[in-house]
Amino acid sequence: MQLQRDLLSLALYLIGFIFILVRFKKKKLKHVLIWTGIFLILYFCFIEIREKTFYLLIPLFFFFLFYYFYFKDKCRLRNGWLFNLFLLSFMGYLVILTFSSRSLISAGILGVLILLFLFSFLFGIYAAIIFLIGNSFIVLRHESRRLPNLLTLILALAIIALVIIQTYEAQLLPEWMLPLLSIPTLISGYFFIVFWNFLSISMIYQFNQPKEDQDFIIILGAGLIDGRKVTPLLAQRINRGIQFYQQQLKETLSAPKLLMSGGQGPDEKVPEAVAMQEYAIEQGIPIEDILLEAQSTNTLENMKFSKEIMDRERPSGYHAIFTSNNYHIFPAGMYASQAGLKIDGIGSKTARYYWPNAFLREFIAVALMHKRIHLFVCGGIVVLGSLLTAASFISLH
After folding, report:
1. Is residue 132 within 8 Å of 153, Cβ to Cβ?
2. pTM to 2 decimals?
3. pLDDT in the model for residue 236
4. pLDDT of 93 higher than 60
5. Which residue stretches of the chain are H helix?
6. CA–CA separation, 41 vs 222, rounded Å?
7. Nearest 10 degrees: CA dihedral of 352, 32, 75, 223?
8. First CA to last CA distance, the chain
9. Domains of the chain by start residue, with CATH
């Protein structure tokens, strides 16, 4: 009976899946995810009704909690914690369903998740080392040898050092010092959890699809070539803004203003906003649809000074979004919240080789925004490790 139930359910899911692929030309992934969610909820509800249980309410509670807080304020790290609580509760639910109802579908989903976990546990560290070292050489071949471009190499070397400490600490050091050497491992584990949370919410934030009713599109500046021309990376940001501009103009016949935001660095001949304006005009954007913010020196100032311009242009209220590279939009959204702007970001594509290094840089920037919390936790780990080391030394001597 259970086998027939699950095979029929899978057949219905595949029919809906094929219909989406044939019916929709755009946003197929979005519709597939929605259909998958609806199918699973209906399937699980059917089993719950038959079994007269209510276990599904636990993951649903965490999902709707995440949903509420995410759409209340998308650029908050707490949303990542709530989403991961949903994932953990959902995995627990799959375990219960697999054994209590003999569900083939839940067993299949759980099996895939377990295989991914085992693969990550057995090979994840070594695969990460190989990937990070390989990526660092690719970055150095394409980019300058500045510290921000060495982050993947530095992380790989740190992981190697940690593995060596874990492997040889028992042979090289007395037993009473082992708690002291657990400090780097615990701190690394803590930052891995923090990084995972940042990665989770950053990936979710990539799915932003703002409505085509915007008054302004803020385009965040970056460095210039020879102090005058936009870089390929900055051009991608501008192109993403122009793409939305043209899409909204086509759909609503109302064009938003492109707000170029970027000041003049010490090695730049013109403000970034001016170079961005010239590039946009070359792409066919009328100059009357472009506004300039040419005073900012960082992302927070981009948002603050852009807000001042938009408040002045439309004191009665407005809708706005911002564009940046995909690895940067979540941190930029956090800065927008600090500046008093409740706006969404849309990301432009970034070269794949550059993504890991850039994402690590953004993670460090966000971690520094909450440095007090991290210093408190790391300090607690150091104190605890030191106390355990002292206790171990006293007990052995």
Report:
1. yes
2. 0.85
3. 92
4. yes
5. 2-23, 28-51, 57-72, 78-101, 104-142, 151-172, 178-205, 232-252, 272-282, 299-313, 329-338, 355-369, 371-396
6. 44
7. 30
8. 66
9. 2-70+80-117 (no CATH), 120-205+372-396 (no CATH), 216-350 (3.40.50.620)
